[in-house]
Amino acid sequence: MKRLGKALHLSTHGNLIVRLDEGSLPKVNSSVLTKKMEKIGTVYDIFGPENRPYASVKLSKGFPASKVKALINDRVYTA
């Protein structure tokens, strides 16, 4: 499990936007987890400036919206 970055907000399309940590560049479709090892979803897209990129995380269908709001400003991880 590696640190991915900090969860910022939900996009208008319902994806979780994550600011990636330095040196963290995940592969598209890699799993995204909470610190309790709950699967949030998968990396859908990587965008933004080269030195501080962002990731769009497509949420799993079974992951409740109430838990997503609790993740804002928390670290998320990738497997």
UniProtKB/TrEMBL annotation:
Pfam families in UniProt: Gar1 (PF04410)
Q: Which residues form a coiled coil?
A: none
BP GO annotations: pseudouridine synthesis; ribosome biogenesis
Q: Give the highest taxon in the source lineage.
A: Archaea
Q: Write down the SUPFAM superfamilies for this protein, in alphabetical order.
A: Translation proteins (SSF50447)
- NCBIfam families tied to this protein: PRK13149.2-5 (NF009634)
Protein name (database record):
snoRNP protein GAR1
Q: Which organism is it from?
A: Methanocella conradii (strain DSM 24694 / JCM 17849 / CGMCC 1.5162 / HZ254)
